[in-house]
Amino acid sequence: YVGDGGATIAPPDGSVGVMLVNVHDLVLRGISVRANANQGVAIDNTQNVTLDHDTVTNNAGSGVWIKHGTAISISHCMLAGSARAGLFDSEFASGTRLTDSTVVANGIDGQRYGGDGVDLNGSNETVRSSTIAGNGDGIGFEHGIYVGATAAHYTITGNQIGANAGADIKATGGAGVIAYNTLTSGTWGMVFSDNSTLVTVEYNLVQGRFQHGIFLTTGTTPARVRLLNNTVQQTGRLTSSGDASAVFVASAAQLVLRNNLLSYTNPDALGSALFVNSASLLAS
After folding, report:
1. Residue 55: which of 40, 70, 36, 73 has the closest Cα?
2. How far, in Å, CA of 66 to CA of 76, rounded?
3. Is residue 247 within 8 Å of residue 274, measured between CB atoms?
4. Which helix (H) or strand (E) holds 262?
5. Residue (of 119, 115, 159, 155) closest to 138 by Cα position
6. What global pTM score does this model have?
7. Burial 153-183 (b: 16+ CB within 10 A, else e)
8. What are the b/e assignments for 62-101, b being 16+ CB within 10 Å?
9. Strand stretches in 108-228, DSSP E
């Protein structure tokens, strides 16, 4: 389905813009969806669907919402200005791919939670070569990319991420790879907690003003992270009180820290390159 010369789908308030249920092998290209409902684009029991060069805005809910979906591809799309997450991917989804897209200014609704740019909860997801910025207004709770407790075997690579309300990336859940991303100023660059196994974090550039560039902590269980070959340059504090550091280890069940360049370069001398809060909370 191609919006030849441009096409806008703008249903009445309360109606989903595009609903794809029990279908497979189709493409929506060059379509603008403007909704005021729970979902802008809703996908369920669907396989091999591509959204390409589409724009999705939803004033009352999520932009693109995937429940039971396999191999859903979102490429060269603009997911912007939705009240909740720009892309929500449920625990029942598998193989979702977000590539070469822009996800900005979602989650600006006065609510504390649920306004992430990208919310990943399924398996084998990929977020690649995209810009994810300015999402969320729940300070500390809404992130550029949020990886939930049920997520596993995800890849986040080659993205430009910054200026989100919470972390640029917050990762809980199972094994994943976060590599070759550029993260700029925000509350935190990356936050890790409640990881069931080691998350590999390598060759990222985290540069700007943060409370912590990388923060390892405990929600219900401690973080498990492998930090390899990253550059973390904290150029100054985002907050006026409390600890500040390029890498702050509040707690971790497992931590591998190797071949990183870590620095706190602001002359205020109020932060550290690496801060381990308590050896007793670093298990191995």
Report:
1. 40
2. 18
3. yes
4. strand 261-264
5. 115
6. 0.97
7. bbbbbebbbbbbbbbbbbbbbbebbbbebbb
8. bbbbbbbbbbbbbbebbbbbbbbbbbbbbbbbbbbbbbeb
9. 118-120, 126-128, 131-133, 145-147, 154-157, 160-162, 167-173, 176-179, 182-183, 188-195, 199-202, 205-210, 212-216, 223-228
Tokens for 269? 């001398």
For 117: left if phi > 0, alpha if psi spans -120 to 50, otherwise beta; the answer is alpha
Q: Determine contact, residues 74/97, Cβ cutoff 8 Å.
A: yes
pLDDT tens string 209-267: 999 999 999 999 999 999 999 999 999 888 777 778 999 999 999 999 999 999 998 77
Task: Write the CB contacts of 267 (distance below 8 Å, at least 6 apart in sequence).
Answer: none
Fill in the amino acid letter for 22.
N
> Which candidate, 261, 153, 166, places its Cα nearest to that of 217?
166
Instruction: Report the C-alpha gap between 3 and 130 in whole angstroms.
Output: 23
Selection from 3, 10, 12 nearest residue 57 by Cα? 10
**Tokens 């902590």 correspond to what residue?**
217
Among 181, 186, 264, 271, CA closest to 230: 181
Give one word for 240, left, alpha or beta, with left for phi > 0 and alpha for psi -120 to 50: alpha
* pLDDT one-digit tens code per residue, 55-109: 999 999 999 999 999 999 999 999 999 999 999 999 999 999 999 999 999 999 9
3-state secondary structure of 280: helix
Q: Name the DSSP class of 138.
A: S
How many angstroms separate the CA atoms of 241 and 250, rounded? 16
